[in-house]
Write a structure and sequence with these properties.
Layout: E1 3-5, E2 14-16, H1 23-28, H2 30-48, E3 62-74, E4 77-88, E5 99-102, E6 105-115, E7 123-131, E8 136-141, E9 144-147, E10 153-154, H3 156-165, E11 175-176, H4 177-182, E12 206-216, H5 218-228, E13 239-244, H6 248-251, H7 256-270
Parallel strand pairs: 2-3, 6-12
Antiparallel strand pairs: 1-2, 3-4, 4-5, 6-7, 6-9, 7-8, 7-13, 9-10, 11-12
Length: 275
Amino acid sequence: MPSFTLPKVSPSVEVTIPVNITQDELLAFRPFKDWLATLQKSIKVQKSEATHAFYDKKDPYQLRSINVHAVERFGSRIGFVLMETVVQNAADPRPLPGIVFLRGGSVAILMIVRPEGDSDERFVVMTQQPRIPAGSLTFYEIPAGMIDESGTFVGAAATEIREETGWRVPQGELVDMTEMALRNSTGIESHLQKAMYPSPGGCDEFIALFLWERTMSRKELAELRGRLTGNPKEREKIKVKLVEYKELWREGARDAKTLGAWALYEGLTRDGILK
């Protein structure tokens, strides 16, 4: 298979790639660039910070090689990359576990709706949709997607929410709960994404957890609940539902995004950071 040496990296790192991706495409793939930059900073911190759990100035871990096993495309665009890396130091010939599934970051939003005149009663927007990797056709979770270049929440869940409720969610109305929680963090790995990592043992994916709140009249809320509990549309693949906030931890117990957002909301509220 084709191979090349990573540019501007010392010690040298050999990269082996399959024939369906070029060197330029891999180096331009945003998740690969983010992962490599983050790992290089982590290696640098290991050598320079005496408080690091694995501090070793003389024999730190180093990235030795990358073997790209598979590339999945969405049309011409690269979607996922599966690769095997070798990260080790000279004293131990056994590399660290290094199989990496690259897919990049996303966002998830805790959408809370309150009836006017009642600060305690709350409802949360959730979706049910097929999640084939989990073996599920009705997986319960809070809405997830991306923030596009115009600063608007987009994706399949955002589209369905907009169709069902008429709501558009601009970035200016979002509260970044992960950033708020990490704002005063003193950890030595502050270069990691200000986000939640749902599966750091095998995947680079990171999810920023946002809060969005809206107040509605009880009449509007009742009408919305009626629409969302009606018969599903033909060929509908995402179902939008309202769940009582007090049941959120139970309804979303299988979903890391939901549990993470719930925990952040509870902690930030408890500490008076969220009003």
